[in-house]
From TrEMBL, chains A, B:
Protein name: N-carbamoyl-L-amino-acid hydrolase
Peptidase M20 dimerisation domain mapped to chain residues: 214-314
Gene Ontology MF term list: hydrolase activity, acting on carbon-nitrogen (but not peptide) bonds, in linear amidines; metal ion binding; N-carbamoyl-L-amino-acid hydrolase activity
InterPro entries linked: Amidase_Cbmase, Bact_exopeptidase_dim_dom, Peptidase_M20, Peptidase_M20_dimer
Family of this protein: Belongs to the peptidase M20 family.
EC number per UniProt: 3.5.1.87
Binding-site positions, Zn(2+) 1: 86, 97, 193
Amino acid sequence: MSTTHNLRVDGARLWSTIMETARFGATPAGGINRLTLSQEDGQVRDWFRDACEAAGLEVRVDALGTQFALRRGRDMTRLPVACGSHLDTQPTGGKFDGILGTLAGLEVMRALNDAGIETEAPLLLVNWTNEEGSRYAPAMMASAAYAGEFTVEDIHSRRDAAGIAVKQALEAIGYLGDEPVGERRIGAFVELHIEQGPILEAEATTIGVVEGGQGIAWFDGVVTGFESHAGTTPMPRRRDALNGFAEIALAVERIAHAHGPTAVATIGEAVIGAPSRNVIPGRIRFTLDVRDPKAETLDAVESELRAELDAIAGRRKLTIELTRIWRKEPVPFDAGVVGAVEAATRGLGFSHRRMVSGAGHDACNIAALAPTAMIFVPCRDGISHNEAESATQGDCTAGADVLLQTLLTLANAPVRAG
Amino acid sequence: MSTTHNLRVDGARLWSTIMETARFGATPAGGINRLTLSQEDGQVRDWFRDACEAAGLEVRVDALGTQFALRRGRDMTRLPVACGSHLDTQPTGGKFDGILGTLAGLEVMRALNDAGIETEAPLLLVNWTNEEGSRYAPAMMASAAYAGEFTVEDIHSRRDAAGIAVKQALEAIGYLGDEPVGERRIGAFVELHIEQGPILEAEATTIGVVEGGQGIAWFDGVVTGFESHAGTTPMPRRRDALNGFAEIALAVERIAHAHGPTAVATIGEAVIGAPSRNVIPGRIRFTLDVRDPKAETLDAVESELRAELDAIAGRRKLTIELTRIWRKEPVPFDAGVVGAVEAATRGLGFSHRRMVSGAGHDACNIAALAPTAMIFVPCRDGISHNEAESATQGDCTAGADVLLQTLLTLANAPVRAG
């Protein structure tokens, strides 16, 4: 044990690997345009396969194109301890989202090879297909199918905007693999990722020990008042849908604050029907996104908001409709794996905090199958899904070191009585 | 005098005239689509000319197509006392906006003919070209040029969306007249119109004695915050442009109320930049329309609002820009003509109130040249610029009777020392 406690990744090699693969789909502004199953995605997959094989890993591809690279362990009867993330990007994505977690996994394998270390359980590195969801819906498609949420036939038949089905796209780049989706079992899963939020940077904290994924509720709303002339309708006689909506926006904000620091609520879209400079808006449609790590908080935000909407509608003689169109329950990660991440972080001496993932990740799907946790590192200004996305070499190295130590702990732990 | 005090218009004839001309550009939904200088506008102009000539009026057309129909008076050295409005409509306009005032003027002439009454000063009935502004900007184009705000050459060169210039359109329907614009002088102007607002109907009042036109200030605003991830950005760290805008909307409403009952302020358009359901809005553009009969109130609303914007921007770390793009000063009508309208109304026994016009009218332009006032009658639900626009025969008749008595008073009044 003492020898592996001192083991570190090669941060410079990890960084140069990130920069090397950034050429597949590189944009002039320094980002990456590497939509899932595109030619560029095919190129980075080929590169990844070759690099894994060069590191002695055995690479297989499943029927949804997900790449699995196995590093043998001393006890091949044990389920592999897995890590990884994704190599696809948004159309104007950055160099770190998904890529850090995947290539840090590769760096872990290389570092173990360099040190000549064999783990008890095998290790597995995964590149999940279509985490981003930009070309094909839904996002996190392959890990969801892996976890049994969708059938492979369903996912194969999904089409992009050009009408190309997932199965065709897989064939076109040579990644319609023969391994049945979900057949490969894993013992645990650890995903390293940039935070995609501002908290770690703001608190000058290096590592986020991620305890789970937030629950999400999506709503569509409509406020209906009465469209009338801006010049001839006295203020007290108005039924202004926009001003009613303004009260709703501030109520949403106030309620989310009251359930802080965890709850967040966002109106991302709002559109006036038949807008005109000199007409009082009679109708406005809006969207609402509410998130919290606890299902009870999602419930409370919704019921408090509905009470506010009734009050606003009554006071302003408006009709306000709010429809919940989707809800994803919170995903708690495994206490044991979270504890292993935290212990590894402490062992390495990094500043850290426990937190919840605000965004969705493949790990949130895998958590339904196997003990799972995530490791977050800071990204500049919390910016992600943007060519300006940035993380420091030091933080990337720190995250990879935590990943390395966590995998060693999990893979070398005594087998628990089953 | 006593004979003319008992004179009334023929309300049934006025109503059937309104319904007769409603066939020019009639829409299936019961409205009128009669854009200025269209073929349909040409048809109603021809009908109007013929009807005026049949009533013994002398019809001339100026270089912007405005029709002037003169009824001779006993003293032709006196300037004519004028009335009228417009016969063009919005693309989905109603049967009363502008039309009532023009055809009520015709009915007044017919009623005087029937009674064999000759006035001291001549009377003049006007059909102004392009009051609506739907096909050619600006609205109230011909009366503004008549008042000297634009040159005829400027207006002639304005083009519609199809590229057709005003001069071409006038020639196409035979209404490029030979009378120089503004040459014809008038002694007074009285315009009867539907209110286009809800006040008279709500108060069950028959006649609005209009003291002036409101001042109008138009603004464009931009709120800039920071676009970020709806799931990963904690509430206290957000710089949400939409929530800042919501505070602005409520501040606008509060300030207008505080300057009530006259002031009105409306945000008619608001557009989020790059809206997405799970992205905190980083930018929102909006328009603002502020109106009040007093210039000082427009000033006060603007300065109070700017102070609020500064406070909101500071508190929320947003940038808020507000640019005044247009301002039209209030137009006070002539106390003498307003008094004549009020006296005529009282003499007829109609319920009435003094009020200010919320919308713009040709009378607001003419007020710069000659003593002017307006007469309002109720319209159903305050709806206008809409095929559902409606007024009762009784109210139309009442408005025409007030117009008749007002014109008689003004045209028969002793000449004031000049």
